Amino acid sequence: MDLSIDPILDFTGKVAVITGAASGFGALVAEELGRRGARLVLGDINEAGLQSVVEKLTASGVEVQAMTCDVSSETDCAAMVALARENFGSLDIAINNAGIAPPMQHFEDVDEEIFDLQHRVNVKGVFFGMKHQLKVMRTQGSGVILNVSSMAGLGGAPKASSYSAAKHSVVGMTRTAAVEYARHNVRVNAICPFFTLTPMVTNMQAPEGATADQLHATFAAGCPMKRLGKPEEVVSAMLMLCSPALTYVTGQALAVDGGVSA
Ligand code: NAI
Question: How many whole angstroms from 183 Cα to the centroid of ligand 1?
Answer without folding.
Answer: 31
